UniProtKB/TrEMBL annotation, chain A:
The chain crosses the membrane at residues 20-40, 60-78, 98-121. GO terms for biological process: cell adhesion; visual perception. Pfam families: Tetraspanin. Keywords: Cell adhesion, Disulfide bond, Glycoprotein, Membrane, Transmembrane, Transmembrane helix. GO terms for cellular component: plasma membrane. This is Peripherin-2. The keyword Transmembrane helix applies. It is found in: Membrane. InterPro entries: Peripherin/rom-1, Peripherin/rom-1_CS, Peripherin_LEL, Tetraspanin/Peripherin, Tetraspanin_EC2_sf. Its main location: membrane. It comes from the Eukaryota.
UniProtKB/TrEMBL annotation, chain B:
SUPFAM superfamilies: Tetraspanin. Residues 334-361 are annotated as: Disordered. The keyword Transmembrane helix applies. One of its GO terms (biological process) is visual perception. Keywords: Membrane, Transmembrane, Transmembrane helix. Pfam families: Tetraspanin. Belongs to the PRPH2/ROM1 family. It comes from Oryzias melastigma (Marine medaka). The chain crosses the membrane at residues 20-40, 60-78, 98-122. This is Peripherin-2. It is found in: Membrane. The keyword Transmembrane helix applies. InterPro entries: Peripherin/rom-1 (IPR000830), Peripherin/rom-1_CS (IPR018498), Peripherin_LEL (IPR042026), Tetraspanin/Peripherin (IPR018499), Tetraspanin_EC2_sf (IPR008952). CDD domains: peripherin_like_LEL.
Length: 344, 361
């Protein structure tokens, strides 16, 4: 007993083929959309790869690009098959491979769903990559004379200004590293000698942040240096000062930015998956309605279209039996196994 | 003598109508494009409204939006005329409208040309407006507690960071203004008292700039204060340091930005003018060819299409005579027609005829 049988006369078949052809063109556009989303994400990751230690995984955007290309290909092919389905002569040449094509489509749809799931899950490894990358970036902030790192200062400054963030977790991260290059420190001055002597590594640490941490919404000119010293500035209390520098950490800011992109891409890929499932079901109905024609030359007759030739349970048992038979292909067959394989 | 005569048989008339229908829809899209361009330009100008003193430059996007909307309507009418042109029963009702259509379409072309010219001419006024606006913004930078001015600091800071500029002409503009609010000055400190006494107005002036002037491309951490004092910073020479702050003034930066925007829209506007002119010419040919065919005994026969029935000079004289008669009818006194009104009307119609160029002549 077939699954979800629908009766088709000629008019209904024509209408079905036309609708499915139309939907296939939308699906091609959807494939292009997935491709461009993958490209966009790849470019966004590349733009800030310095902040991720050049270590970020391009697996997801590459997968999206591949899926987009395959989707375009199979949707264009499916559209052509639908277009030819109205002409029995043309359709006859596609008939043999249609079954395998449909199985391939079903597998592809499963992969597409998996991709959308990955989009939501990739946030977690990204978090660790970002934390490492920003920490190292901050360490190399002062190395504007070291080849390979000379642009780190500009990259970090521009990032802090654009994403309105400061430091890794918060602005205090800048207190723990030396971000002023030795070229600009007067080692004969007492203040410099004190600070260098105050810690084990001999680093010039200070309670100050770079200018890119400053918040333009603050009512007073930005206080960058001696931030924890209330007496250094008039009418200043560093515990209650909220608007002076950005409060958010850059790891959180970048994570929410990329997280937003990935969530949007994931949602769009789910929608594309639904469209793909719809066109696959449509093509299955077109195929089954044309193959159950009693007399292929008599186009006007009625036929039935179905989703699965047998019920779900029977189809599943069939597949399992086929796989078992394939597995035992080389051995001498017993009579019992043959009987199981031919149950219908 | 007819101007630019062309023979049209039935098939050519049909082809012309179909081609013109497509061209008119293209012109409708172009009208929509012009409108969107105007909206975009206006939005960009409004975003920086606070640093501009007057809104004279807004005439450019306003005209663009107006012309865009009018062009959509006009060209849509042209598509309707094309659809009806091959139907002898429906075409006559458009006859009356067509002269007005030509006038309106020519006017739109003139307005678009005017926009291109204006966008160059108004550059000076834009600079003046920015100069005054920025000067005020810098003066009111410290007034973050005065209602109406409390956002000047944020506006100027964001402007300097986004356009990578500092001050009005350059960063020294900040030396002449007190940009630190009195609320954050310790008036008992000796340094503050010295600075306030050092100038006539009693302002706290310093050789320092706000943080938004800092250039991220500088190899050393930003130096904002004591800029003219070489001894205040290690390994620092005020005269040779060029990467520390942005060297460009904000007036120059903003003018360049807006001029760049308007220049890049120039080619688009010029091509829209060309498309509109070709629609006008094609519609004129269609009108004359179809009218000629309807006057024949056999409507499917050959007819002639032309741009002007008589030569340019003769048409001009005819129009002038018509206009004079109209003015005379309106007046009780047959003599003494006001010269200005006559010349103006003649000039208008001459402009309409001149707007359709004659490439072959």
């Amino acid at each position: 007993m077939a699954l979800m049988v629908v009766k088709f006369d000629l008019k209904k078949r024509v209408k079905l083929a036309q609708t499915v052809w139309f939907m296939y063109w939308f699906a091609v556009l959807a494939g292009i959309l997935v491709l461009s989303l993958g490209l966009f994400f790849k470019i966004e990751l590349r733009k800030r790869s310095e902040l991720m230690d050049n270590n970020e995984s391009h697996f997801l955007p590459n997968l999206l690009i591949l899926m987009g290309l395959i989707a375009c290909g199979i949707n264009a092919f499916g559209g052509k098959v639908c277009y030819d389905s109205l002409d029995p002569v043309k359709f006859a040449k596609w008939k043999p491979m249609l079954k395998y094509f449909l199985v391939f489509c079903v597998c592809f749809n499963g992969l597409l769903l998996l991709t959308s799931l990955l989009c939501f899950l990739m946030r977690i490894p990204l978090q660790f990559t970002l934390a490492e990358g920003i920490k190292n970036g901050m360490r190399y902030y002062k190395d504007t004379d070291t080849p390979g790192r000379c642009y780190m200062k500009r990259t970090l400054d521009l990032m802090q200004m654009e994403f309105r963030c400061c430091g890794n977790d918060n602005f205090r991260d800048w207190f723990e590293i030396q971000w002023v290059s030795n070229r600009y420190l007067d080692f004969s001055a007492k203040e410099v000698k004190d600070r260098i002597g105050s810690n084990v590594d001999g680093q010039y640490l200070m309670d100050g942040v770079p200018f890119s941490c400053c918040n333009p919404s603050s009512p007073r000119p930005c206080i960058q240096y001696q931030m924890t010293n209330n007496s250094a500035h008039y009418s200043y209390d560093h515990y209650t000062e909220e608007l002076n520098v950005w409060k958010k950490g850059c790891r959180d800011a970048l994570l929410s930015y990329y997280g937003g992109i990935m969530n949007t891409i994931g949602a769009l890929v789910v929608l594309v998956t639904m469209l793909e499932v719809a066109v696959t079901v449509g093509l299955q109905y077109v195929n089954s309605s044309l193959s159950t024609l009693a007399n292929p030359e008599e186009v006007e007759s009625e036929s039935e279209g179905y989703l699965l030739e047998k019920t779900v349970k029977e189809t599943f048992t069939d597949i399992m039996a086929k796989m078992k038979a394939m597995g035992k292909g080389g051995k001498v067959e017993e009579g019992g196994e043959e009987a199981v394989a031919t149950v219908s | 003598m007819v101007l630019l005569k062309m023979k049209f048989n039935q098939q050519r008339r049909v082809r012309l109508a179909q081609g013109l229908w497509l061209l008119s829809w293209l012109a409708v899209m172009c009208g929509a494009f012009i409108f969107c361009l105007g909206v975009y330009l206006k939005t960009e100008l409004l975003r920086r409204n606070e640093v501009m003193e007057n809104t004279e430059i807004h005439v450019v996007p306003n005209i663009l939006m107006l012309v865009g909307l009018a062009s959509i309507g006009t060209n849509w009418v042209a598509t309707r005329v094309c659809q009806d042109s091959l139907d002898a029963s429906r075409f006559p009702r458009w006859k009356v409208l067509l002269l007005a259509w030509f006038v309106v379409a020519a006017l739109l072309c003139c307005l678009l040309l005017a926009v291109v010219v204006l966008s160059y001419v108004l550059q000076g006024r834009l600079e003046e407006s920015l100069k005054v606006g920025l000067r005020n913004g810098i003066r009111f930078y410290k007034d973050t507690d005065v209602p109406g001015r409390c956002f000047q600091k944020e506006t100027i800071d964001r402007l300097q960071m986004e356009f990578r500029c500092c001050g009005n002409n350059n960063f020294k503009d900040w030396f002449e203004v007190q940009w630190v609010s009195g609320r954050f000055l310790d008036y008992t400190a000796q340094e503050v008292k010295d600075r306030i006494r050092s100038n006539v107005d009693g302002r706290y002036l310093l050789d320092g700039v706000p943080f938004s002037c800092c250039n991220p491309a500088s190899p050393r951490p930003c130096l904002q204060y004591h800029l003219t004092d070489n001894r205040a910073h290690f390994n620092y020479d005020y005269l040779s340091e060029d990467l520390n702050l942005y060297s460009r003034g904000c007036r120059q930066a903003l003018t360049d930005y807006y001029m760049g925007l308007m220049n890049s829209t120039g080619p688009g506007v010029l091509s829209v003018i060309l498309i509109q002119i070709s629609v006008i010419l094609s519609l004129r040919y269609l009108q004359t060819a179809v009218e000629g065919a309807m006057a024949l005994e056999n409507p499917e026969g050959d007819s002639e299409g032309y741009i002007l029935e008589k030569g340019v000079k003769e048409t001009f004289e005819e129009v002038k005579v018509k206009v004079l008669t109209m003015i005379k009818l309106a007046q009780v006194d047959p003599e003494g027609v006001p010269d200005e009104a006559e010349a103006e009307k003649a000039a208008d119609t001459a402009a309409e005829k001149a707007a359709s160029p004659t490439p072959a002549s």
